[in-house]
């Protein structure tokens, strides 16, 4: 049994959830993969219109849009909070008088509009305000705990792996990710004995050269730089964020610092639109659909079978045994858009890549995938 909670922060995080939901449905004709794998999704954003937008959430004639219990709307903060910041020690811990004055004078319109305005302080303030508001039905902690409980009950397994997806250029994702990590780790600390409650980050960095200059409101690349600095400090144990809930340290009486005695996360995957050879992937001007079509073509069973056919001779005896074991295993699902032969070969290939991943040999997995893609010419450009 395996439980996975996928959390999307901000607009980019929401897009990742959308494409993942569509991909899962394409593969399994269901929102659930089955075979002992349980997945739930939570979309956190400060834009109500983005949270409710159903555009692009259809695949094969079916809607894979998230339900209300899978959304956290962090839009809005009362002026009474800003006027009485001493009553909210968790917020006061990282807001100084200049920040508060700025929010009063310039950010009211942004908050009302429900957008981060690419201001990280605003994004952090919004999620902190939401976490502090225990009466909010869309409270981040309530939604996270409910999703975890649902997965545990469905699977009969206590362990849940958290996957946080966020873009680091905007205000919401970049501003909220530190507190999202710190709070979830506090509610569900990693257990080094049972390996329960792992946390993995999937981070999308700003482009070095903007494809679409309209994406920059003045803080685009600076946000990414600042977020990476904070995440690096978190990972090395040099940064312990303030508990935005305002919980006090029993010894000092001050608002406690989190992540004092545990790692902030277990892995972070950082993505950019430039590959190792300097090739820029331009998704501007309506090319996202074309990119999705290209990636769908690569991961389908027929294409995976082609990759296997050109890399078989380079497999070690151990790798060949794993591949054959996966290929010959009795499957609970049947091929829907592929021949039985291609489907079984693709299953064996996925078993091999999964085995290499679990064996901490991702370099070898990437070597095989890259070799196969180059030889089959499935990509429209060179790796």
Question: What does this molecule look like?
Answer:
Helix content is 47%, strand content 11%. By secondary structure, it is of the alpha/beta class. It has two domains: 2-271, Rossmann fold; 300-376, Ribonuclease iii, N-terminal Endonuclease Domain, Chain A (Orthogonal Bundle), CATH 1.10.1520. Strands 5-2-1-6-7-8 form a six-stranded parallel sheet. A two-stranded antiparallel ribbon has the order 3-4. A hairpin with a 2-residue loop joins strand 3 and strand 4. Helix 12 (317-328) packs across helix 13. Mean pLDDT is 83; it is low at 110-116.
Features:
single chain, 383 residues, alpha/beta, Rossmann fold, Ribonuclease iii, N-terminal Endonuclease Domain, Chain A, 2 domains, two-stranded antiparallel ribbon, 14 helices, 8 strands, 47% helix
């Amino acid at each position: 049994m395996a439980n996975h909670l996928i959390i999307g922060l901000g607009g980019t995080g929401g897009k990742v959830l959308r494409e993942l939901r569509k991909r899962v449905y394409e593969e399994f004709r269901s929102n659930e993969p089955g075979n002992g794998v349980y997945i739930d999704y939570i979309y956190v954003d400060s834009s109500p219109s983005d949270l409710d937008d159903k555009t692009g959430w259809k695949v094969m004639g079916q809607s894979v849009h998230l339900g209300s219990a899978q959304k956290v709307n962090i839009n809005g903060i009362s002026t009474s909070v800003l006027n009485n910041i001493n009553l909210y020690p968790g917020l006061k811990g990282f807001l100084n008088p200049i920040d508060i004055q700025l929010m009063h004078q310039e950010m009211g319109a942004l908050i009302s509009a429900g957008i981060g305005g690419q201001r990280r302080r605003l994004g952090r303030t919004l999620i902190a305000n939401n976490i502090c508001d225990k009466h909010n039905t869309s409270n981040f902690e309530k939604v996270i705990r409910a999703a975890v409980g649902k997965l545990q009950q469905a699977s009969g397994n206590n362990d849940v792996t958290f996957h946080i997806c966020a873009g680091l250029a905007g205000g919401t994702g970049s501003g909220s990710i530190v507190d999202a990590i710190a709070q979830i780790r506090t509610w569900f600390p990693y257990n080094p004995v049972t390996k329960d409650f792992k946390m993995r980050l999937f981070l999308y960095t700003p482009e070095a050269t903007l494809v679409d200059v309209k994406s920059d409101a003045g803080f685009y690349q600076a946000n990414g730089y600042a977020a990476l600095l904070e995440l690096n400090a978190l990972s090395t144990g040099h940064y312990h964020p303030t508990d935005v809930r305002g919980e006090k340290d029993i010894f000092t009486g001050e608002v406690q610092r989190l992540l004092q005695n545990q790692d902030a996360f277990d892995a972070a995957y950082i993505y950019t639109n430039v590959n190792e050879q300097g090739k820029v992937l331009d998704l501007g001007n309506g090319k996202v659909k074309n990119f999705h079509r290209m990636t769908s073509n690569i991961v389908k069973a027929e294409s995976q079978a082609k990759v296997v056919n050109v890399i078989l001779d380079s497999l070690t005896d151990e790798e060949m045994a794993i591949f054959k074991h996966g290929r010959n295993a009795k499957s609970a699902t049947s091929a829907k858009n592929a021949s039985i032969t291609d489907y079984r070969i693709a299953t064996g290939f996925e078993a091999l890549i999964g085995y290499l991943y679990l064996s901490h040999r991702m370099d070898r997995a990437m070597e095989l995938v890259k070799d196969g893609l180059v030889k089959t010419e499935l990509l429209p450009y060179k790796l």
